[in-house]
Every structure is written in structure tokens, then in C-alpha cells.
Design goal:
Elements: H1 5-20, H2 55-91, H3 93-108, H4 111-122, H5 126-152, H6 156-163, H7 168-204, H8 216-224, H9 232-270
Length: 271
């Protein structure tokens, strides 16, 4: 299957800029009064914002913010959701019923609205954004992990492990998680794209990263007032956000197709 080279390249550039950004000679918070709202040119490749700050430097700083938030949120959500979904599906009984009802309650509310409410209660800041999005994000992983666990926990090798007296933690780690990991990896890929959008939305509303730190969402918010006179303030972070999210989603689609084809191939080989 053909690899999506352009999405991979965009994702690599995003990750690379986010990692090496602190070691670059950037000055994202320096104010150049003579360059306020100056369009792209020789002084700055992407121009300056309403305070005279270089947009390119702040765009790189925003890439670091989006990467940190997405990695932390998806990591916490995946660990929590997979643990809860797998454990409750394997044990079953009243515990599984309670968890299912909790998942249904969370699924009844739009995730972004619940995240906005939590961020508003806890206050703005990157740490609170991570907590708010993680509280919302674990549900998808738990729901999928539970469904996958129910489909594989009755297999022969799991029954053999139970008959040999293997403990529940070992069965989950050695016999269940390897079978259900592929769809969960794809879920995590799409989760990264969703978190990037959510973080930008919260920052746009003033509930995310606070000044002078940069976020693509807050940059779009600041530039919205100057769309007619300085559209570059919105176009630069907007295009960066669109390219990264689109590339991550295309990469997730490719990863899902690859894993599905391998599963079909494995199934045909066993027939």
C-alpha cells in the first residue's frame, strides 16, 4: 500500500519544529513597535502581529504547545481508557455494567462542551487544558477497548491461560492487549488530531494557553480583529493547524488500511 509521503513529511516537520524550537534563536515575545501589523517580508518570513511580535517564531512556539498537549492528553486518555475498558470487560458483572453506564453518560454530552465547562471551572492554563481534555478523551478508548476485549476474551489461548491459573493482570498484558493493540493505535492517531483541534478551540476562547505563551488558537483569536488589514495573522496559524490536522488524519487512515490488510491476510493464511 502506497505511503502518504506528504502527510508524513508534514508531521515530521511539525514534530521536529516542536522539539528543536527551544534551541533555535527565537524571540517570540519580543515587541518591535516599528513592525506592528507588518506583512510578510525580509524582516520576518510570516510578518508581525498586532504587538509587533514575529509570527514565525510564535508559530513554532505554538507547534510545541500543540504537540505537548496532544501527547499528554492522548497518553493519559489511552492508558486510563484502555485499562478501564479491558479490565471491566474481562471481569464483567456489575463492574462492567457500571462502567458502561458511566461511558453512556459521557457520550451523551458533546466532548468539546464538557471540556469547555471543565476548563472554565478549573481556570485557564495548559495544565488544566490537559486535565479537561483527558477527562473527556478516555471514554473513546475505554469503549473501544471494552468491545475488543469482549470479542477476544473467549479465545482458546485465553481459556488455556485461565485454566493454568494465570492471574488477571498477566492475562490482560500478555494475552489480551497484543490482540487489541492495533485498533487502539489507530484510535490514538485520530485522537491526536482531535486534541490539536480541541486545544486550539480552548485557546481561541481564552481557556487554554495564556499570554505571553503562544498557541495556534490564541494566534487566530488575536488576528481575527485584523482580518481586513492584516490577514496574515490568521492565515499563518490557520494553515498550519489545517495542514497538521489533515496530515495526522490521513496518516491515521493509511495506518488503519495497513493494519486491516494485515489482519485480512493473517485470517486468509489461517484458513
Amino acid at each position: 500500500m502506497k505511503r502518504p509521503l506528504l502527510p508524513i513529511l508534514v508531521c515530521l516537520i511539525w514534530v521536529l519544529l516542536a522539539i528543536v524550537g527551544p534551541w533555535l534563536s527565537l524571540d517570540p515575545n519580543h515587541i518591535h513597535l516599528q513592525s506592528i501589523l507588518q506583512p510578510p517580508g525580509s524582516a520576518s518570513f510570516l510578518g508581525f502581529d498586532d504587538l509587533g511580535r514575529p509570527i514565525l517564531d510564535r508559530l513554532i512556539l505554538g507547534a510545541r504547545t500543540s504537540l505537548l498537549v496532544s501527547v499528554w492528553v492522548v497518553g493519559l486518555s489511552a492508558v486510563t481508557g484502555i485499562l478501564i475498558g479491558t479490565l471491566t470487560a474481562y471481569i464483567g458483572g456489575w463492574l462492567d455494567l457500571v462502567v458502561v453506564r458511566v461511558i453512556d453518560v459521557f457520550m451523551a454530552f458533546p466532548g468539546i462542551l464538557l471540556a469547555i465547562a471543565l476548563a472554565g471551572i478549573m481556570g485557564p492554563g495548559i495544565n488544566n487544558v490537559v486535565i479537561a481534555l483527558s477527562v473527556v478523551g478516555w471514554v473513546g478508548f475505554a469503549r473501544q477497548a471494552r468491545a475488543l476485549t469482549l470479542s477476544v476474551k473467549e479465545r482458546d489461548h485465553v481459556a488455556a491461560a485461565v485454566s493454568m491459573g494465570t492471574g488477571t493482570p498477566r492475562i490482560i498484558l500478555r494475552h489480551l492487549l497484543p490482540l487489541i493493540s492495533a485498533p487502539l493505535i489507530v484510535e490514538a492517531t485520530f485522537g491526536i488530531a482531535a486534541v490539536i483541534i480541541s486545544e486550539a478551540g480552548l485557546s481561541f476562547l481564552g481557556l487554554g494557553v495564556q499570554p505571553p505563551e503562544a498557541s495556534w488558537g490564541s494566534m487566530i483569536r488575536d488576528g481575527a480583529r485584523y482580518m481586513l488589514v492584516s490577514p496574515h495573522m490568521v492565515l499563518a496559524p490557520g494553515l498550519a493547524l489545517m495542514l497538521v490536522v489533515l496530515s495526522v488524519n490521513l496518516l491515521g487512515d493509511w495506518l488503519r488500511d495497513v493494519m486491516d490488510s494485515r489482519l485480512r491476510q493473517a485470517g486468509s493464511d489461517t484458513c
